[in-house]
Amino acid sequence: MKRKKTKRSWGWFGWTILSVVLVTIIGSTVFFFTIFQFNISSLFQESEAANNSEVNEENSQQNNDETSKNIEHVQETVGKQHQVIGTFISETHAFYNETTGYGGINNLDWDEQQSKAKTIQSQIHLQLRDVKNESLKNDLEKVNVFAKRVVKDQSVEAVQSLHRYFHDLDIALNEYNGYDKIWNITETLAETD
Question: CA–CA separation, 152 vs 174, rounded Å?
Fold first, then answer.
């Protein structure tokens, strides 16, 4: 007897197993890249990223030298002229480091934040007339606006902005050097005159 050549078909069971395996692989891949926040295109651009990081490192070093000179200039001029407000800025920056740093921004004590914002408002009101530098005066007026938002709206973004302003002002006025980033949001730190 001769055997007939027959095509073997997968049948419903085979197709079901194949579908389950494919969906599992695709779902796991999407889950993995979402959870670990990987950029799939970065896997294919490894050498390009290495070249870019070398160029960025050179530019960063050059900018750091310029920034350091600018900071020193501001500290010698504006910082020396405004030591009283500089002390207030340093103390307030320490408060924000303690209450918002290391994830604290996600779990704020609003009574404490609003109390500090009211203190900021009253201190700025008392000391603003003694500020001679226009850039610093503008920065303090912006800080006052954010402090009002904290009191009125319990705005997390306003608290974060206050922390950034006090961070940069502390660098500008008080020779604060416990930083690895400058937010560049203050006029005072940008001053080059």
Answer: 30
User: CA 143, CA 132: separation in Å to the nearest integer?
Assistant: 17
Please, how many CA atoms are within 13 Å of residue 125, restricted to the half-sphere of its CB? 9
Contacts (Cβ under 8 Å, ≥6 apart) of 175: 75, 79
Q: H or E segment at 145?
A: helix 134-153
- For the chain, the straight-line distance linking the first and the last C-alpha, in angstroms and rounded, comes to 103
Q: In the chain, count of helices (H) and strands (E)?
A: 8, 0
> pTM here?
0.64
Residue 129 has a pLDDT of 87
* pLDDT single digits (tens) 10-46: 788 889 999 999 999 999 988 887 776 666 555 555 5
Q: How many residues does the chain have?
A: 193
DSSP letter for each residue of 103-137: TGGGS--HHHHHHHHHHHHHHHHHHGGG---HHHH
Q: Residue 47 class from Cβ within 10 Å (0-12 exposed, 13-18 middle, 19+ buried)?
A: exposed
Distance CA 129, CA 22 (A): 70
